[in-house]
Design a protein that fits this description.
alpha+beta
Length: about 110
């Protein structure tokens, strides 16, 4: 197996799921670095360079909300999945399950 070819396809597969995965980590307000740590612990490694795009893009589209906490000496930005983000995630998860079932059926794997 060509490792470079495989790596490219894995990046594409992950790119399509990273917003849903990130959204799943933010049902409660969390500091910006928490989602990548949670994703990594679950086996969904996210490169550190993708942290801000991972949060900015969904926030720009109203899928995440953010709030600055200035109670501590160093202000920190906290993120949370918005109602629109939760609704989108639910729809995407339905589609994910459907696609997964179809791919498994094509591969003869119904487990």
């Amino acid at each position: 197996m060509d490792e470079e070819l495989l790596a490219g396809h894995l990046r594409e597969l992950r790119r399509g799921t990273v917003v849903s995965a990130c959204s799943a980590t933010l049902d409660e307000p969390r500091y910006g670095y928490a989602p990548p740590e949670t994703l990594d612990a679950a086996g969904f490694a996210v490169d550190g360079n993708t942290l801000y795009p991972l949060l900015r893009c969904p926030e720009k589209h109203g899928l995440l909300t953010s709030e600055w906490n200035t109670d501590e000496t160093r202000p920190r930005k906290f993120y949370r999945t918005s109602p629109a983000g939760a609704e989108l995630r639910a729809h995407l998860m339905t589609q994910w399950r459907s696609l997964n079932s179809a791919v498994e059926a094509l591969n003869g794997d119904n487990s």
